[in-house]
Structures are given as C-alpha cells and as structure tokens.
C-alpha cells in the first residue's frame, strides 16, 4: 500500500546482520518496533530456550534497532518518533505468560528511559499496549473458546482488538498530533485494565 516502504527480512536476534541491514536503510524519522514472540508456558515449566528467545526478540531487538535508528536521527539533526508495541500483559499478570508479561513490562520501562534520554534530541518514544489482537499470533494463542471467553469477559467493550485499532493508535503517536506525548503507554485494551 505504501510504495516508499522497503521491507527488510532478517533475524533481529542477529545483532551483526541487524546492524548492517538497518544501518544501511536510513535515513529515518519514524520507527515502529513490532516484532514479538509469545511462548506460553506455566511458570514452573518455563524453559531457558523460551526465555532467551523472548528476551532476544521482545526486548533486546527493540533496544538494538532503536539505537541504530536513533543514532541516525541524531546525526541528521531531525526530530523523530519511536513507537514500541507492548501489551496489556505488561500491566497485568496472565496465567502461562510469565516470560511474555515480564518482557513486555521491561519494554515499557525501556521505552520510558529512551524517552528521557532521547527527548533532548527531539525524539519522542511511546508504547501502545493492546489487548489480544486478531493477528496470526493472536489467533494461535487465543483460539480456545474457553480461554478466550475468560479474557473477553474481562474486557468492558466485549471483544479483542483488530489490527486497525492498533495501527490507528500507532499513527497517532507517530504524528504531530501527539507532539507533546513521550514516555507514555497508550492502552488499546477495550478497558481490560480498568475491570
């Protein structure tokens, strides 16, 4: 839909490949960090592999890609905006989500530190924190009607989010309409956290 966008396909856990590919792709004014994995395991069964993979993708990749892009923004002397896609799971414990909740909580705090340190360079950093979104990953993890019913019953709007719900929130945070917003988490959760 946007001919000016050139996708890069790479393993974000590979720091050298990421540095080379993203470093050559600029210049940047906007960044959305949306890559994530959700390996769901009960706390007592969490494996080292699941923890390492989740940390690599959900936290370390965001830090690394943001460093590359922010350095370019600063070198260009242009204002910018970064939006990190977090989750309502950063704020509320969910069964079998020990690793996912933890990485998303860490992402929220990383985003606040980024906002504080990048603000003097006129780079804003925020998160969107959606409820379950009906992506392929959302469908895989929430296809069980009993499991999904328990979650939907806690959402005052009575439904999971659609992709456009999250996209529209991201577009707002990237735009000049949110020019005084940084270090914030925009909940796109249908009211889940107030219930």
From TrEMBL:
GO molecular function: carbonyl reductase (NADPH) activity; L-xylulose reductase (NADPH) activity
Family matches, as PANTHER family: D-ERYTHRULOSE REDUCTASE (PTHR44252), D-ERYTHRULOSE REDUCTASE-RELATED (PTHR44252:SF3)
Subunit composition and interactions: Homotetramer.
UniProt organism field: Pygoscelis papua (Gentoo penguin)
Protein family: Belongs to the short-chain dehydrogenases/reductases (SDR) family.
Name listed for the protein in its UniProt record: DER reductase
GO biological process terms held by the UniProt record: glucose metabolic process; xylulose metabolic process
Domain of life: Eukaryota
Annotated keywords: NADP, Oxidoreductase
